[in-house]
Structure formats: structure tokens, C-alpha cells
Amino acid sequence: MSVDRILLTNDDGVDAAGIRALYDALAEEYAVTVVAPAADQSSVGRLLSEDVAVDDHGLGYVVDGTPVDCVVAGLDELVPDADAVVAGCNEGANLGAYTLGRSGTVSAAVEAAFFGVPAVATSMYVPGGDDWWKREFEGEDFAHAARATRFLVDEAVDAGVFDRADYLNVNAPIADEERAPLRVTTPSTWYGMRAERNGDGRVGFSDPIWGRMNEDDVPDPVGTDRRAVVDGEVSVSPLSVPHAAEPNAGLDELVEAYEAAVRS
User: Fold this and answer.
1) Which of 149, 100, 154 is nearest to 124 (CA)?
2) 94 assigned ligand-binding residue
């Protein structure tokens, strides 16, 4: 198949700089229709609303809902002729296997995969302290992400990538003067989430990996998504939709034991 029309969404909201950067890169070649949330929907995962308000927007549609709402409404109603879905560019990386289900950006691509539509989720790694998210981003900051996304949309479908993968999770470093190379990766399996009671009846959460990334002390080998962005590369992980069934997994014997217990 060839790609002519793209549904573009995100989880940072329709007015975010990252979605505009991808729109500008993709609209040079493709018919791009934005179907994006009205406000920031970061880390909502695959949350689906019962119904949503939809309004016209200069680039397509704005949805008072989640990224998954945008994809379902887009592919089944608003842009049913879309050949591909692109989600992003997220302000902040989506690295590691444990982040995939949390990310609204990645969840949009996963939802598209269930529709059988090729999808690319694109995010940008921003180094810095705990307040990096307060930074105001410009279109040029997303140059690595936009260039890689455009290339993958141009080439991956015809190359048969989506015959073997359901979606691509792309993470690019924030742009600098050098062109970042592309590396095929797998999501890191390192997990280090922490919880701490703070004395007022609440528990706070932290993820120490971000500080380690700032110090170039990541526990990941070459070939993982996190190592790639720390090394100044664009990571692209070819992934399948979640929850693949494992044949048996030793449950047949347990089923027999359960049935015997029930009869006894």
C-alpha cells in the first residue's frame, strides 16, 4: 500500500509545538489531518471516553478527549481514509518497556494498530533537571524527530516494515547542529520506579533513570532505546500490539487440577 493521507495526533494538545513541527514536515508530501486533544493528555495511556466533543480546527479537528479518543474518532468517523497514523511529537521521551502503556503518544499508535493502520509514535528526549518540562520549545528543537518521522513514513510502508511490526516507537534527541543517525532498538527492560511515604498520608513516586541519563550513567547496552538517545541517536523500535497470548504457559495442568477440586 502507499501512504497518501495521514491522521496526526498527540497527547500534549493541539497547540503544542511538537505536533506543528511534524505537521509541517509531513504536509510537504502528504494530506495531513490533525485530530488532537484540546488540552494536555500526557500519561493517560489508553483511556477511552464514553463520548467527546469535536470541533473544527485550522489543521483538522480538536477533540475534548484523550489520544485514543482521537484515533478512534479519527479512523472510524472523521478521517476514515487515513493510510497511516502519526502521534507526536511528544515533549519528553517515551523510553523503556514500562513506559509504553502509560504514554498517550504510544497509546495512540497502539490503537491505530488495532485498526490495522500503520502507525508511528514520535517523542523527543530533553535532558535536564526535574523542571525540564517548563521549557518553551520551538519548531527547530524537533528537527531530528521530524526528519526521522518523515523518512519512516516515506519508506517503511513500501519496505514491508508493517508486515512484521504493528507500530514504530521513535525517540529522538533534542535537535543540535549535527544530524542524528537512526538506530533500530528494543525497549529497555530496566525498571527502577520508587515510592516513598512523605509523612502526610501520601506516597510520592520517582524514576531515578532520568538523573542517571543526565550523568550518562544508563544501565542499558547498545541496541536499547534509552542508550540510543543518550548517545545522540534517533531510536526506532518496531513493536507489536500488546498482550500476545502465550500457548499453555503451564495452565493446562492447573485447569485440570481446578476441575478436580471443584468436583471433589
Assistant:
1) 149
2) no
pTM, two decimal places: 0.93
pLDDT tens, position by position, 167-177: 999 999 999 87
Residue whose entry in the numeric block shows the C-alpha cell 547498545: 222
In DSSP terms, which residues pair with 61 in a beta bridge? 35, 56
How many Cα atoms occupy the beta-carbon half-sphere of 231 within 13 Å?
18
Domains defined for the chain, CATH in brackets: 5-189+219-263 (3.40.1210.10)
Asked if residue 42 belongs to a known ligand binding site, the reply is yes
- Kindly report the number of other CB atoms within 10 A of residue 5's CB atom: 14
Q: Please say if the pLDDT value at position 201 is more than 80.
A: yes
Angle subtended by helix axes 17-26 and 143-155, to nearest 10: 40
Pairing of β 119-125 and β 31-37:
unpaired
Known binder of ligand: residue 10? no
Residue 90 in marked binding region: yes
- From 148, 185, 162, select the one nearest 22 (Cα to Cα): 148
pLDDT in tens, 117-145: 999 999 999 987 666 667 788 999 999 99
